[in-house]
Design a protein that fits this description.
The chain is mainly alpha-helical and about 220 residues long. The chain is built from 13 helices and no strands. It has helices at about 5-15, 20-35, 40-50, 55-65, 70-85, 90-100, 105-120, 125-140, 145-155, 160-175, 180-190, 195-205, 215-220. Helix 9 (about 145-155) packs antiparallel against helix 10 (about 160-175).
């Protein structure tokens, strides 16, 4: 009855069964026994998100990070929540802090760079975004998602030829990805390659799930 690992595991089983009260009770017991262990906090936050309790999830993740600022799952989950809620300044700040706490956490650096390039338009923001994306690439070379981010930053800077070079590499790794196809379509549009642009935009929009930039893709395709 005083084994935190087993209580957390039991809470996870109840969570799968959507027996939230029992799951919460077991996660809380695990935390009482071992308050420095981050996993029960993560599971609590996940449970609150499943229930639509965003603010409670954020509170639990912040508590987890106070206990252990090397908890990569908590950092990335917290950043994701802010991003989904369109709280972009908070998302960017979270990813930046995560990368400072864990200098090998390349997704945090990449996500910070992407948010800065997508939602903050000043030249300084774009330069900072590029710096962090390049740091991510140093940690994880030839990674498609990072190559796409760097290409998109160059697109925002108006360096279309460089943007296409990076996004082409990303597209080879992720040929069906709607966001990468959208990015390629936008770059080709700026370069006057209309037929090629149309092909990538149509491919991006052919999948039923929407993505950030889908409305811009539709407008560009209509044009």
């Amino acid at each position: 009855p005083k084994e935190a690992f087993t209580l957390n595991l039991l809470g996870g089983i109840y969570l799968v069964e959507k027996e939230y009260d029992k799951a919460k009770a077991n996660f809380k017991k695990a935390i009482e026994i071992n308050p420095d262990w981050s996993k029960p906090y993560d599971n609590l936050a996940r449970m609150y998100l499943m229930q639509g309790k965003k603010d409670t999830a954020i509170k639990e993740l912040k508590t987890a990070l106070k206990q252990n600022d090397k908890n990569s799952t908590a950092w990335l989950m917290l950043g994701t929540i802010y991003d989904r809620e369109k709280e972009y300044a908070a998302a960017a700040a979270t990813y930046k802090k995560a990368f400072e706490a864990i200098p090998t956490l390349w997704p945090a650096a990449n996500n910070y760079a992407y948010i800065k390039s997508e939602h903050f338009k000043d030249k300084q923001d774009l330069e900072q975004a590029l710096t962090y994306a390049q740091k991510a690439l140093e940690i994880k070379p030839d990674t498609g998602v990072i190559l796409d981010t760097i290409g998109w930053i160059h697109y925002k800077m108006g360096d279309y030829a460089v943007a296409m070079e990076y996004i082409e590499k990303a597209l080879k790794q992720h040929p069906e990805n709607p966001i990468v196809n959208y990015h390629m379509g936008m770059v080709l549009d700026k370069m006057g390659k209309i037929q090629e642009s149309r092909g990538h935009l149509e491919k991006a929009l052919s999948q039923k799930n929407d993505f950030q930039g889908a409305e811009t893709a539709r407008k560009t395709l209509t044009k």
